[in-house]
Structure formats: structure tokens, C-alpha cells
Design a protein that fits this description.
Radius of gyration of chain A: 22 Å
Distance between the termini of chain B: 30 Å
Number of domains of chain A: 1
Largest interface: A-B, 36 and 33 residues
Shape of chain B: elongated
Shape of chain A: globular
Structural class of chain B: mainly alpha
Oligomer: heterodimer
Number of domains of chain B: 2
Structural class of chain A: mainly alpha
Strand content of chain B: under 5%
Radius of gyration of chain B: 24 Å
Helix content of chain A: 55-70%
Strand content of chain A: under 5%
Chain lengths: ~240, ~120
């Protein structure tokens, strides 16, 4: 029986280029997103067909999330946030197809995305607000003798943001896929266990329920990632309000 | 009918620009959708317990990630300080403790027990 971890193995496809199955699925995911959106917007009618309606729902959903968290100014980051959301959502969902590789279950991928977000926040915040952006680390109404500690803690708390952002997505995807694989393995093990085979449908039912849950988690985590991105961008746009 | 009521409400609340108009309409639409959604969910899935359980798992993941991230960030920072300044092991020790505090702060902020640095704009 295959180990539950085996599905996360990185296999080189074109070793010379460092092109792995992970890269393949990332390229495939991007192609799927771009192709799907181009197909959805091919007619651009006032009364949308079903694909265009889907694309519009995605657009409005992300735009709504962004303006809720970061206000009207946040819309200049819309292309960035929308790309992130689509990338994470698509790769989460693609990973749920049996036999497919889940790119977002690798922490280096999610951390790269989170580092991109926090890098944008820092660069944009410093560019637009200069040193005022650093006021983010100095909460008001703190006694002076406590301030050095609080500032250091706030800075560590800030550094922990990309880590928690990436950790959450990674842990959810990893745990879900391992749980699915383990319950799938139970079905096989019980099926080959003589009289105990009558129990085999139980883990099968569990696997079915878990699959449904995983679809929920895939969407939810993409959403959570997007919401937190928007909240962090809000810090860059309006620091110290 | 509801459109009429909405229009009246708009006139009362604002003598404002198209911006406030649009956001007000979006808000109302959101409220209406929220009113619809839970009932639709209950209708489609008998597993109400399942969804409650999954949100609890989600909360657990979220909170643990916040805390672990704080400690990790402190550890990484301390390790880097030690490496660059050569104060091993004091940088790591101090920053781990501060990271623990930062993790706690993250945790309390995530649960809403401590208010965020500033009230979230909108």
C-alpha cells in the first residue's frame, strides 16, 4: 500500500531545466486560469452567458473582498489579489482530482506567495508613507518603559504574518490530502482482511465525506488567503489610522 | 416593492454621491444574500453537524498557525541575529521568548480578545 506521504513527492520531469511535476501543475493551473477567463470573456455581451457570468462572479467576489478590507484605494491592487486568489483556488481544486499533484501542499510554494504579499506591503508602504509606515510597529498609549519590548514584539508579530499565512494554507492542504489517503488506505486494508471486509464501506463513506470537506477547505483557504492579503495590503495603504 | 423601500431608505440616509449609493446598494444586496444563504445551505445539506465540525477544525488550524508562526518568526529572527552579530545563544533565547509573546499576541488578536493595532479601516 502506498504511503500517504508519497503523493507529495517532487519528481523531475525535465531535470536540465529543474522542471518538476510541481512546475508542470503550476504551469497547467495558470494555463487553465488564463484559458478559462479568455474563453469566458470571448463574447463580452451585456447579457452574459454562463461562462461570462462565472467570470463576473469571481471578479465581483474578489473586488468586494478587497474593497471591504482595504477600501476604495485597494482596487489598485486588484490584479495582484485576483491573480493570487485564482492561482490558489485553481491549484487547490486541481489537487483534489485523484492522481493529481497538489502544489499548494508544499510550504515553499505557499511561503513564496506569502513573501510576495508581505514584500508588496513593505515596499508599497515605505514608498507611499515613508517612515510613517513604521508607525505600524508603535501602538499608541503604551508606557515609555514598555515601548522597546512592545516594538520588538510587534515587529516579530509582523514577520510572523507571512509565516502564518503560508502555514495555514499549507497545513490545511497537507492534512486534508493525508487524511483522504489514509482513509482510502483503510478501505483497501479492510477489504483484504477476511471477515472484517464487511467493515470496509465505513472508511469509504468517511473518504467520501472527507472529499466533500476538502472541496470546502480548498475554496475556504483560497478565500482566507485572499482576505488576509487584503487586510495586510490595507496596512500598507492606510497605516496608523 | 422592495426596490421602492430601498430607494426611500437611500434618499433619507444620504444626500451623497454615486459612491455611497453604490456601496449602500451592495450592502443591502449583501444583507439579502446573507438572509438567503443559511436557509439554502440547511436545505441542501443535512450534515449541519459536519459543517459545524469543519469550522471548528478551521478555527483550530487558524489559531495554531497564528501561534506557531509567532514562535517561528521569533526563532528565525533570533537565529539570524546570532549569526550576524555572533551573540549565540542569547539572541535565539531572547527572541524565542519575544516570539512566544508575539505568538500569544497574534492568537489573542485572531480571537478578538485584544483589539488590532488600529481599527480596521472600514
Amino acid at each position: 500500500m502506498a504511503s500517504p506521504i508519497e503523493q507529495f513527492e517532487i519528481k523531475p520531469i525535465i531535470p536540465a531545466l529543474g522542471f518538476t511535476n510541481s512546475s508542470l501543475f503550476m504551469v497547467g493551473g495558470v494555463a487553465l486560469i488564463v484559458g478559462g477567463l479568455l474563453y469566458a470573456t470571448r463574447n463580452r455581451s451585456v447579457v452574459p452567458d454562463r461562462f461570462q457570468a462565472g467570470a463576473e462572479i469571481l471578479h465581483d467576489f474578489v473586488a468586494g473582498t478587497l474593497t471591504d478590507a482595504a477600501g476604495r484605494d485597494g482596487m489598485k491592487f486588484f490584479p495582484f489579489v485576483f491573480s493570487l486568489f485564482m492561482f490558489v483556488l485553481t491549484l487547490n481544486l486541481v489537487g483534489l482530482i485523484p492522481g493529481f499533484f497538489t502544489v499548494t501542499s508544499h510550504i515553499i510554494v505557499t511561503f513564496a506567495l506569502a513573501a510576495l504579499v508581505i514584500g508588496t506591503v513593505i515596499v508599497y508602504g515605505l514608498m507611499r508613507h515613508g517612515t510613517h509606515f513604521l508607525g505600524l510597529f508603535v501602538p499608541s498609549g503604551v508606557p515609555v518603559w514598555l515601548l522597546p519590548f512592545i516594538v520588538v514584539i510587534e515587529i516579530i508579530s509582523f514577520i510572523s504574518r507571512p509565516i502564518s499565512l503560508s502555514l495555514r494554507l499549507f497545513a490545511n492542504m497537507l492534512a486534508g490530502h493525508i487524511a483522504l489517503k489514509v482513509f482510502g488506505g483503510f478501505v483497501v486494508a479492510l477489504g483484504g482482511a477476511g471477515a472484517l471486509a464487511v467493515l470496509a464501506p465505513l472508511p469509504l463513506l468517511m473518504a467520501v465525506a472527507l472529499t466533500a470537506l476538502e472541496f470546502l477547505v480548498a475554496g475556504l483557504q483560497a478565500y482566507v488567503f485572499t482576505v488576509l492579503t487584503c487586510i495586510y495590503l490595507n496596512d500598507a495603504i492606510h497605516p496608523g489610522h | 416593492m422592495s426596490g421602492n423601500g430601498a430607494r426611500d431608505g437611500r434618499d433619507e440616509t444620504s444626500g451623497s454621491a454615486a459612491d455611497g449609493d453604490l456601496s449602500g446598494r451592495l450592502e443591502r444586496l449583501g444583507a439579502q444574500l446573507d438572509a438567503k444563504r443559511p436557509s439554502a445551505e440547511h436545505g441542501s445539506s443535512p450534515g449541519g453537524q459536519q459543517s459545524g465540525q469543519s469550522s471548528a477544525i478551521g478555527l483550530a488550524f487558524r489559531l495554531s498557525a497564528e501561534f506557531v508562526a509567532g514562535v517561528l518568526a521569533g526563532g528565525i529572527l533570533g537565529w539570524l541575529v546570532d549569526r550576524l552579530v555572533g551573540t549565540a545563544p542569547w539572541g535565539l533565547i531572547v527572541c524565542l521568548i519575544l516570539g512566544f509573546a508575539a505568538g500569544m499576541l497574534n492568537l489573542l488578536r485572531a480571537t478578538g480578545a485584544v483589539k488590532p493595532v488600529r481599527p480596521n479601516g472600514r
